[in-house]
Description:
Elements: H1 15-19, H2 22-35, H3 50-67, H4 75-90, H5 99-104, E1 116-125, E2 129-141, H6 145-152, E3 160-168, E4 178-179, E5 195-198, H7 199-216, H8 223-230, H9 232-249, H10 269-290, H11 297-320, H12 328-342, E6 346-349, E7 352-355, H13 360-378, H14 383-395, H15 419-424, H16 435-449
Parallel strand pairs: 3-5
Antiparallel strand pairs: 1-2, 2-3, 4-5, 6-7
Helix pairs in contact: 2-3, 3-4, 7-9, 7-11, 7-16, 8-9, 9-10, 9-11, 10-11, 10-12, 10-13, 11-12, 13-14
Amino acid sequence: MSATTAQIELQSPTGHVLASSNAWIALKRAAGDLQQIQVQDGSIPDPADHDRAQLAVDSITASIRELAPSFPHDAEYLALLEADFEQWAGSSFGVPDFLDSLLAFQPQQHRIDGLQHLVVFPMYTQNGSANRFVEAVLFEVAWPEFVAELESGEYSNQLFVPIRFIDFTPGYDTNSAVLFPESVAVRETPAFTWGGIFADREAERFRRVVAAASQTTSLTLPDDARRLLEDPQLALETFVMWDLIHDRTHMRGDLPFDPFMIKQRMPYFLYTLEELRCDLTAFRESVRIERDESASPEARSHAKLVQYAVIFDRIFRFAMTGTRVRNYDGLGGQLLFAWMHQHKVLHWTDSTLSIDWADVPEVVIELGKRIEELYWRSIDRPKTAHWLAAYELISGTVTPNPASVWAKGPDALPLDGPPRGLTDQVLDDEFPLSMFYEALEKKMRTVIDSTAGITGGSIGADAHKDAA
């Protein structure tokens, strides 16, 4: 059985030692070999590849056994992981099923700052690849004391596991900053009990993009915001706090039954509102914590930084990252920027960006209230009426594409058919970038693209390629 949290001591080798060990390098190389012969569902259908696959699996299981003493808290999981690999090989490398080892991996039970884990699964990586290839990640938990205090109080989130990269296989040399159990190949869907967020990647992307964007727009940063860009540890801790509150918000509040409408096709701008609602909740709660004299000094100081992080990450990195094909996070950044501009707390004058920080909290919190009111009213509305109301909220601030059918109003839409017909009428770029963003994106494109695979440590995007 895995050790209890009280029994765990941080006695593992350092991340650098693990990442440079022969066992880890061999494991990465073997995973890379498997990826070259796996198909999208994770299987290896060509019998001519099975000898090569068996050699790779033998190397992986041998590496797991060698590395296992460094992870005594994951002993049960690592033993079952070996068994799952052997079972997969014994099935002539059919569609992999790693349910047994996945159920045994429970990182949320041991949220100790610096505690390390080895994860090896056939899985896809969000914002990375839809292929369920064998991927491997070395990471450690990021659990600052002030975050533990917040989580033990009003911000309980027992599924949340903030983590930082040590090293990884090619599937994470991407924009992916999450490790979710639902991405693993299994025979049946279990109840998911944890979700990992790579806070170091989020923080480093933020630092690089915001530094460049503030220079490009001649934005004068407040001293606290400048500290975020200069101190990677401070930025990481800030993102852990933001993620803690954001993540728990998804299933809290007056929701339109299921805000994500899992496995249902719906207009992408509804995802925009859900993600922005969670971020604006984190912003609002951070304002409250900052003003709460009973909160710890660390929580209050980080709460101020979360406010800067939410605004800058949204209006700079989110708004210009990715393609213009149903980019719901990009639209969320556009919406926040336009809302702040139209409420006169953000200004683009004389080719200089400025923000009236004293007035920002009230304005930003008001946008969150508008989304919450939309959600509150949703349970009394038919689905199509909720969709139309959501579109009206966004299009009242962000200008739709002139070619949009939705922009012409309900009379132009196929309301007498199934909801799918409405979704089909949403353009891939329903809300194009403004002239400001078009110009800024051209100047920022290289910087934003450079953040793929970025980590908060010296081991990361470059180091993993040595064994690829």
